[in-house]
Amino acid sequence: MKKYITIGFGILFCACSNYLDYKPDIKMVVPKSLKDAELLLNDYTALNEGYPIYGELGTDDYYLPDANWEGVTDIDQRNNYIWADQPYRNVIQWQRPYKVVYLANQVIDILSKLDRNNEPEKYNRTLGAAHFYRAFAFQQLLEVFAPAYVPSTAASEMGIPIRLDPGIDGKSTRASVEGCYQQILSDYLVAANNLIVNESIVGRPNKAAAYAGMARAYLNMGDFPKAFLNAEEGLKLKNQLMDFNQLNPNVTFPIQRFNVEVLFPATTTVSAGMNYNNGLVDSLLIKSYTTGDLRKTVFFQESDDLAGAFAFRGSFQGTSSSLFTGFTTSELYLIKAEAGVRTNKIPESLLAINTLLRSRWDKNLTYTNVAVTNPDVLLPLILQERRKELVFRGRRWSDLKRLNQDRRFQKTLVRKIKGVEYKLLPNSLLYAYRLPETVIEQAEIPQNKR
């Protein structure tokens, strides 16, 4: 079975129906049982790791000194940093999520031919997990390679290819942004209806994670009532937060992997530019953490190479080589807070933001509740706390894209390398990264608009 799957991936990564010359051995066993379906979902490396880093590479949360930028050997990642509109040859950002889609589609196809009544609990958990993984992979791709969701244009803007069957020889076409989000929401809903609350297998999603996926999607779509509702549903199931007073800031990575806040663990591909030794945290962002806010000492450490600069070490993955981009309860509190203020649920919004911030506050100092009731004042405050809490967690690129739709929060990003200044303007077409040229050439699908 393992050889069969490997061949499938090799063909899949060609992204074209003409690459089927090599035929698998007819004696190979094709996965077809519930046990086979379960085993396909036991590959943590394939399903939980290797999601796109490109979005975060373009954010304003960090910067690279000239020497550090020149030291990045991956030319595509160097171009990402300055938003250079150059062809990309590295297909890993595209391949890895579609490998997840392929696996999920295999599982869903296997289950469609089985009687769920034979082992209903196991069947439902496996079905829910497969739909979750597919939704998550589509979501990660959409946030990087498609434009922001705008209600008036979402039905006509190009999204990503949506593959819903395990076949590897069908022609790929790009669905609309609207169609992509609807498929993502549909998959997450199936997941929420089938997953269990307490999943014992590390790395597998639970029911709260499915609600988190829907909450994140609805937030990106600007559907704040539904974002609030799904964040609330997720928090009803899982609402634990770490007490930062109990973390040890003297260790290299103070936050434990698979901690109580993690609903679903996922990480990006490796990035030399954003790791602890190269990327330095934006100075204004650092200054925004006030005295008593333990996130400053837990998330950051003074750079060994540049006086007054800080490096990020607050990963939920316990490493500096890749970024955590999964779901957490802390993100749900922030979605509830933002969606709450946007839908005039001020008391609920205040409760959510204060619950989160109190868990990050030095217990030796008095915490003063956020008590602002004016939405025009409270919303910017919550958005700032969102950035401070979810720093290096795969959310900033998507947030910049969606917040650019509101003139109050538009921001021009600026880089300076070797005396040359580069800018990324609000609502720029560059917010949808170019698809890898290999994909364009072999799959014959259109490139993003420029």
TrEMBL record:
Alphabetized Gene3D superfamilies for the sequence = 1.25.40.390
Q: Which InterPro entries match?
A: SusD-like_N, SusD_RagB_dom, TPR-like_helical_dom_sf
Can you tell which superkingdom this protein's organism belongs to? Bacteria
Domain RagB/SusD: start-end pairs: 324-405
Q: Does the keyword section mention Cytoplasm? A: no
Short name of one Pfam family for this protein? SusD-like_3
Q: Does the keyword Chloroplast apply?
A: no
- Alphabetically ordered keywords of this record: Cell outer membrane, Membrane, Signal
Query: According to its UniProt record, where is this protein located?
Result: Cell outer membrane
| SusD-like N-terminal domain location | 19-219
UniProt family annotation: Belongs to the SusD family.
What protein name does the entry list?
A: RagB/SusD family nutrient uptake outer membrane protein
- Record the organism: Sphingobacterium kitahiroshimense
